[in-house]
Write a structure and sequence with these properties.
Blueprint lengths: L4 H33 L1 E6 L7 E7 L2 E7 L4 H13 L7 E5 L4 E5 L13 H17 L6 H4 L3 E2 H6 L3 H5 L9 H14 L5 E4 L8 E4 L2 E4 L5 E4 L4 H5 L9 H19 L3 H21 L4 H12 L2
Parallel strand pairs: 6-10
Antiparallel strand pairs: 1-2, 2-3, 3-5, 4-5, 7-10, 8-9
Length: 302
């Protein structure tokens, strides 16, 4: 099997030696998964990124095989999919945590939310999925609590910015970074804490025969308002026209307020907070961090 070079490079960059070993072991992992689950006709998806994902058949059933380098984030995803149990998300059919392999429901026709052109329609669909995924489930059962990522741990990473830049704010405008520092404690004081997706955006919401469903949940414990952040900066690189992006953002905020009853300021704060966090992650990984930062600037001006 010939794997795309960009996929190999991404895995090696993100996971180092473990990533290299994973790439070399993919043929054997496919063989093991095929034997365990009775899979045939395994065909990699065209847009491989951080995991090996393939279409496959289990008898007459179409399924998805997903494999990656075993890590805590992957374990959190498996736990989240078990708990969601197909409500608002694709169904986890089986998994092998030790080998880092998932067997998943295939979503047909699999149209991504990003492919729709009407942004109002996209936003309403995303909120429908969010409500099915989070608000109709209730709280998280204590025995599974330690399996999940804590949102606060993600934002703790922002505390390293000043230490790395002699007390200054590094790549961030001082006023934006200090604003995030000032309102984060209030955001995390929110008692509306749930198991949330954690990477909820237009490329992780697909159309299926069961309706629109989410894929690839991170499995994060935190305030539900965070889910707005990834949605607001996506589809990625949509900030080609600042004026249009600002109009789109304000329209989305109106829909969020109407559908969820959240305060406008809270929506803005989560949007800015996520955009800054996303920029910091990309800055550290030498990726396109300026896009997220520019989104943060637009959100801050609303």
């Amino acid at each position: 099997m010939i794997l795309p070079l960009h996929f190999i490079q991404t895995i090696q960059k993100v996971f180092g030696k473990e990533g290299g070993a994973f790439i070399e072991n993919i043929p054997q992992l496919i063989k093991d998964a095929s034997t365990r689950w009775g899979l045939t006709d395994i065909q990699p998806v065209p847009n491989l990124s951080y995991n090996f994902v393939a279409f496959a058949k289990k008898g007459d059933e179409e399924v998805i095989l997903k494999m990656g380098v075993p890590n805590s984030e992957q374990a959190s995803e498996m736990a989240a999919l078990r708990l969601f149990n197909g409500e608002g998300a694709c169904q986890l059919l089986d998994c092998d945590e030790e080998r880092g392999a998932f067997l998943l429901e295939r979503l047909n026709p699999g149209i991504m939310l990003a492919e729709l052109k009407d942004d109002d329609e996209r936003t309403h669909i995303a909120i429908d999925v969010m409500q099915n995924l989070i608000f109709r489930r209730g709280g998280v059962t204590p025995p599974l609590q330690n399996k999940f990522i804590q949102l606060s741990a993600w934002f703790d990473d922002l505390k390293t910015v000043r230490s790395k830049f002699d007390g200054r704010t590094g790549p961030f405008p001082k006023e934006i970074f200090e604003r995030v520092e000032s309102f984060l404690p209030e955001l995390f004081a929110d008692e509306d804490v749930n198991l949330i997706h954690g990477d909820f955006h237009h490329f992780n919401i697909l159309k299926s025969e069961r309706g629109w469903l989410a894929i690839d949940p991170k499995g994060v414990i935190g305030p539900a308002g965070y889910e707005i952040g990834p949605l607001m900066i996506n589809p990625w690189n949509s900030l080609s026209d600042g004026t249009s992006f600002k109009v789109q953002t304000e329209r989305r905020m109106d829909i969020f307020r109407e559908r969820l009853g959240w305060e406008r300021e809270k929506i803005i704060q989560w949007s800015v907070a996520h955009a800054v966090l996303s920029a910091w992650w990309d800055f550290q990984d030498d990726m396109d961090w300026e896009y997220s930062l520019n989104c943060a600037k637009v959100f801050s001006e609303i």
